[in-house]
Structures are given as C-alpha cells and as structure tokens.
Amino acid sequence: MAGPLEGVRVVDFTTMIAGPYGTMILADQGADVIKVEAPASSDHARRAGYGVRKVTAAFLNNNRNKRSIAIDLKKSNGREIFLRLAETADVFVQNFRPGVMKRLGIDEPTLREINPRLIYVSISGWGETGPYAHKPVYDPIIQALSGLATVQAGSDEARPRLVRTILPDKVTAITATQAICAALFHRERCNEGQHIKLSMLDSVVAFMWSSDMGSQTFVDRETSVQRAATFIDLIYETKSGHISISVMTNDQWEGLCRAVGHVEWMDDERFKTPSGRDRFANERLELTQSAMYEKTADEWLIILEEAGVPCAPVLTRQEMIKHPQVEATGVIEELSHESVGRIRQARNAAQFDRTPTEQRLSAPMLGEHTLEIMRELGYGNGDISLFLDGGTIYTSSQPDA
What we know:
By secondary structure, the protein is an alpha/beta fold. The protein contains 17 helices and 14 strands. The protein has helices at 18-28, 57-60, 76-87, 100-104, 108-114, 139-146, 148-153, 167-190, 200-212, 250-259, 274-279, 281-292, 297-306, 317-322, 324-329, 370-376, 381-389, and strands spanning 9-13, 32-37, 51-52, 55-56, 66-71, 91-94, 119-124, 194-199, 235-237, 242-245, 311-313, 332-337, 341-346, 393-394. A seven-stranded mixed beta sheet has the order 8-7-6-1-2-5-14, sandwiched between helices. Strands 9-10-11 form a three-stranded antiparallel beta sheet, covered by helices on one side. A two-stranded antiparallel ribbon has the order 3-4. Helix 1 packs across helix 8, helix 6 crosses helix 9 (200-212) and helix 8 crosses helix 9. The longest helix has 24 residues, at 167-190. The chain starts with 8 loop residues before the first strand and ends in a 7-residue tail after the last strand.
C-alpha cells in the first residue's frame, strides 16, 4: 500500500542534512523524490563520516526511498533537462546560499514561469536578508548565535555548550516537511503554488521559544541574566549505572519521597508546591541524588515504577537498540543493501493506519536512476547517449542507451 504522499513528485536539490533529511521524510511517506546532484560535485554526505565500501552511514540515513539523477546544470543542455524535470514536479527543495539558484538559472521566478503550481522551498542558514545572509554556516554556528549553546550550558554565566547532535539541521528539516505539506494542502484548495522560505536560524529560535525563552517573553520585564534553575540535571548516579527521574505533580513528588524512604521531605515547606520545588530545585535534586547512591539502577527502577514515579535507565546507543521498549515499537529495522549488506535504520516515526510508510528503495548511488528518469522525461536513446558522452549527465550503471 502506498504512503499518504503517493503521487507527489519532489525534486530534491539539497545537500548535507537539513535538506536531505526533510525530503527523506517526504519520500518515506510515499512521495517520488528525485535527488539531483552534479556529476563532479555530489552531496557531501556521500563522503562524510563512517562508511562501508564507499557508502557512508550519513548518506544512507538521509536519502532512502529517493531516486538519483546526475546533471551538470552549468551546461546549457543540462539546465534544459532540469527545467523539463521541474515541469513535472509538485515540490522543489534547495538549501544553497541565497543567490546560487539565480546564477544557475533555476531560481523561483524561473521555475514559477514554467510550473505555476510548484511549491518552491528555499532553505538557508541565516535567512535571505541581513548582514549574515551570505555567510557560510553549519549546525554548530547556528547553535552559537541562536542562544541554544547558552541554553545547553544551563545559564548565561556558565561556559556555553553545544548539543551533541545536529539539532538545528534536523529541526529545520522537520519544519520544512510540515510547511511543504501545509502548502500542498493549500494548493489542493486554491490551486496555487507558493514560495516557502525558511532558515536554520529561524527554525531554532522558534523551536526554543516554547520552553527556553520565558525570561525574554514579557516586553520591558526581561531577565537580564538567565541563571541556572539547577546545577544538577535529571540524571542520577546509583550503585551501578545512571537513571533519569523527573517529577512534576504533587502525587509524583510524594511517590518519590515514599519510594526513597524520606517521607519527611513531604513536610518540608520548600517542596510542598510545584513552584517551591522549582525555586529550591538545587536542594531538592541534591537530596534525591544522595538517596540514589543506596541501591542499583535496576533496583531503583522497580521501586520507582511501582510508586508511579517517571523514570528510565540511561542507555548507550548500543543498549538503546536492544531495549525491550524500542524493540516493541519496531522503530528500528534491519534491511538489506545491495552494496554493503545488512543495515540498520530507524523507520519513519509517524505510523499511518491507512497509508503505511515503507522502505521502497535504499539510498541511491550517484546517478543510479539517471537513464530511467531521462526516459520518463521523453528523451530517446540517441539524446541520452549524446548527453552521457558530453558529460551533461552521469549514471552509476552501465549506459544501455
């Protein structure tokens, strides 16, 4: 059964993570995503990080369910091929710096002229205006300027710290997919395409505001220096390993007090209300940590669960894969890849009961589907041979044109 986006064609002119991860979500959900790369300058993720037989995990994990065509857009006939492809698209996504698309002759006004119903998506680092608009950027740079590194530190006075995953890239990707689906819904109602612009910076600032920018919410009453609510996080050391405990409600706090054998904490005026427990979080968490040293992680998890206290073990990546809850959800799948053998990936997180997602294709080799797509666009064998010989297009398979 096809995914919910079956019949939607996405031309993916993105690289690295923010663009490719977003278009992969669309591909997982049934869209026909055609990844366009230059023959001599393919997606950098093909060469980044850990890999087997020249196939990297970074590329595999951000480009499944896509088809690949390799076109040199700097050649006039290459641009003509691309424009013919763009005519067939519902969505075009690019994540290059402002100005690059115009130089290549595939900017929004150009594609709009040949395809008025197109959803054109421009993903940038900083946005398309302002003093940083044309600066190069990667995930850590956005973490720095957005304030995320300071939030991660715990306070304005502590040394800033990066989140140890490329959160801005992935938040931007998810923001883009939601916006694309909204634009497609609008087009169904009003029969018009539109230009979606989003930046990594905007995506992260919007993402943080719901929980991390309370001190800056009330105009003219901002907190000048954001101090740490606590100097202890919610990870606790036990006799063996670490666990996480988080209590919000009065019932959960009382359950914790009983579970650790310190019912007197319930009578402490500092901790009787949620606001008090927040105000005196350092003292509360110190007491909790002191109690955790008394038993092992496994013992505490049983006791705390019986008391209705939210808790979980702190796992390594390898341990997470084998945890019964993760196994029960089926979120991690083992699949076969024709070049590297068995691989492990996380399936699309959203599960649709009527239009389930599935892995139809592994991440493609560069130009793996060039011949197939060229024929779909109406090119004959003679033209295809000329384009191959002239370096306008490239295929990873043996040319049979």
